[in-house]
Amino acid sequence: MHAWPASEVPALPGQGRDLRIHDTATGGLVTLQPGPVARIYVCGITPYDATHMGHAATYNAFDLVQRVWLDTKRQVHYVQNVTDIDDPLLERAQRDDVDWVKLAERETALFREDMTALRMLPPRHYIGAVEAIPGIVPLVERLRDLGAAYELDGDVYFSVESDPHFGEVSHLDAAAMRLLSAERGGDPDRSGKKNPLDPVLWLAARDGEPSWDGGSLGRGRPGWHIECVAIALDHLGMGFDVQGGGSDLAFPHHEMGASHAQVLTGEFPMAKTYVHAGMVALDGEKMSKSKGNLVFVSRLRRDGVDPAAVRLALLAHHYRSDWEWTDQVLQDAVARLGRWRSAVSRPDGPSADALVEEIRDALADDLNAPAALAAVDRWAALQQERGGEDIGAPGLVSRAVDALLGVAL
Question: Which pTM does this prediction carry?
Answer without folding.
Answer: 0.96
